[in-house]
Specification:
The structure holds two protein chains of two kinds. Helices cover 71% and strands 1% of the residues of chain A. By secondary structure, chain A is mainly α. Chain A has one domain. Chain A has a two-stranded antiparallel ribbon with strand order 1-2. Chain A is globular. The termini of chain A are close together. Helix content of chain B is 36%, strand content 24%. Chain B has helices at residues 47-54, 77-83, 100-106, 114-118, 124-136, 152-166, 182-195, 208-214, 232-237, 239-246; strands at 9-18, 21-31, 36-40, 62-67, 70-71, 85-88, 170-174, 200-204, 217-222, 225-230. Chain B has a six-stranded mixed sheet with strand order 6-7-8-3-9-10, with helices on both faces. Chain B has a four-stranded antiparallel sheet with strand order 2-1-4-5, covered by helices on one side. The two termini of chain B are 35 Å apart. Classes of the chains: A mainly alpha, B alpha/beta. Chain A binds chain B through residues 1, 5, 219, 222-224, 226-227, 229-230, 232-234, 236-245, 247-248, 251, 365-368, 370-372, 374-376, and chain B through 55, 57, 76-78, 81-82, 86-87, 89, 93-99, 101-102, 105-107, 109, 111-114, 117-120, 122, 143-144, 146, 149, 159, 162, 166.
Amino acid sequence: MSVALKNNRNLELIGFALIAVVILVVLPLLLDNFRLNLVGKYLTYAFAAVGLVLCWGYTGILSLGQGVFFGLGGYCMAMFLKLEASSVANTKIQSTPGIPDFMDWNQITELPFFWVPFKSLTFTIIAIVAVPMLMAFIVSVAMFKRRVGGVYFAIITQALAAVMTILIVGQQGYTGGINGITDLRTLLGWDIRTDHAKFVLYFVCSGLLLASMLLARAVIKSKLGRILVAVRDKEDRVRFSGYDVANFKIFVFCLASGIAAIGGAMFTLQVGFMSPSFVGIVPSIDMVIFCAVGGRHSLVGAVIGTLLVNWGKTLFSESFPELWLFAMGGLFIAIVLAFPRGLAGLMTDQILPWIERLRGTRPTHPGAAPSAAPAE
Amino acid sequence: MSSSTDFLLALENVTVSFDGFKAVNALNLYIDKNELRVIIGPNGAGKTTVLDLICGRTKVTEGSIKFKDQEITGLKEHQIVRRGIGRKFQTPSIYEDLTVFENLEISVPRGRDVAGALFWKRTSEVIERVREIARMIFLEEHLDRLAETLSHGQKQWLEIGMLLMQDPELLMLDEPVAGMSVSERARTAELLELVSKGRSVIVIEHDMKFVESIADRVTVLHQGKVLAEGSMATIQDNAQVKEVYLGH
């Protein structure tokens, strides 16, 4: 245990550096544009996984609805892009030119009021984070202030994911329905469909992901991070130490949702559309699996887990599309049973001590400075 | 009975019922400043429920609880803690995944809101205070250890230490020596002697030897009511107490 603790601190920094090098240098050099764009798409899910490390790994709040926040961020971005793509010139064949095509198909003749502010990029950028966080705030206040937690919270978030999908699909005229918001073209006149744009967006996405990881790390390393671990261990004790536990849970859930939302917006930009299939129960659970495979106590692990599972998904589903879901389910069960701390846990608990033994060094006690690294 | 008193804590006519079952029934209990009070009683007498009521974990059905002459029924747990009441649970309730230092640090009564926690600075004052308390609870050597690696007795001490960090005016301990070895019990008795200076302490305990070694006054609960109250000697001579509790 002390070995794991000591290594955790150095290892984390090494892991951060390694991830940065792989994402920013190695992959762009190795992969062609198509594959790189695919990795960029995977990285957008990693935002959600990073958020899950905070709220699930550290605080013990399992959310099965991160797709909702990912999707809301993505939809906010898509609304802006769609409005830009629906200029009067582009849509002059419609019965009402100047509104998105799917609205015209649904006999809507005027831009709905909640679409109007999305003509502004500044508003959109704020909304990408603010709208999902507001939603997360409402849900978490309603739940945590009433001490609803654990599996009940997980079920409620899952229900939220289902509701959100139904709402989006049902309100076709306002949301694009099951097809989503498609045919996105430019961002302030810059064509996002070109190879060059995708190349640039990949780096923007990677940069934002690394920034989100650093933000999450700062939170974990603060006293607040230790309080989150404390809440996970003994919620009552925290309460009887004079803390209003609900506020901390609300904070971390909103933060996790905001980070997931940035991923959603980057998804829309890189993939070029947003649809309810990235909002619902299945993508939400996928995100939990990415996080679990990588290790829910490790930010670096969550990103690696996301990349590996998605890479596996792409390889596997190219050959056996119908088997993929079973493989995914099996993987999740196997991880939970065999490596509850995921790949990161495997690294710190098994492989590194083994290497240490091979080198014949004796395990030492952690240094004088108390560490905030959580271990089980 | 006057409701404006010098008592630190006054429970008056407190009743709590769970689906009609009165776990605590019209209970009156007064704790003085700087008093060490031990509550004993058979299983199901409502001892732990009384602590739950005082610290807000269970809501009072009827009656009033006043702390420093202010009503505290209806306050949230963390608000009651901030008024100056600390509570130790029956089983050691500590943060296993944090170090001893971090366990104690979290209990420092400052930076308790989200922003305060986010921008918390580990000042030399904090470190000094943590060391001071760690010395008292015999854990100074173990500050960097994960709490889960402590022995059962050490965990109990750690939780007492976490309460001392809060510097409460009223400290409530639920069976602090349960599961401890003989030598650990003796040290805990010493520790309680030390921590009860300058504050009031309520202890729930079963171990009569331990009770004898620490108690000023003893309250015997039976079926949610006070059966007897007084010094250890008078309690041990009380025929009713012998019948329901001590005789067994």
